[in-house]
Amino acid sequence: MLSTNYPEGVENEIFSLVYNPQNNTILCGSNNGLINAWKIHTWEYVCCFSGHKAAVVTMVLDGKILFSGSEDTTIKVWETVKNYLMFSLEGNGATVRSLIILRPEGYLLSCSEKKIRVWDYKN
Fold this sequence. Notes:
This protein is mostly beta strands. The protein has no helices and eleven strands. The chain has strands at 14-20, 25-30, 34-39, 45-50, 56-62, 65-70, 75-79, 84-89, 98-102, 107-112, 115-120.
């Protein structure tokens, strides 16, 4: 184990993590619906993505686009260079438990309860 330190200011449970190699940050999805970004080696705070109304339980990254799934049943699509919400995907009907990307096809797959949804995010 390299470190057991937590970034300064983390007060909520962290439910999901994703590494962004483009800017060397860790994105932490929390139980308060926020996604916080921290520099990996210094734990310097970078930004906060705010938009979910419940815990962020899954995230996946495709280049500069971050997808986050939440207990609020939505998927948020974020741009990670200028750090803003691009749009939301609705229709899961339950907590979004997992997300995966099929890059060549430009598809995002989400699962919630007994449903798997396929989203065409490139078009």
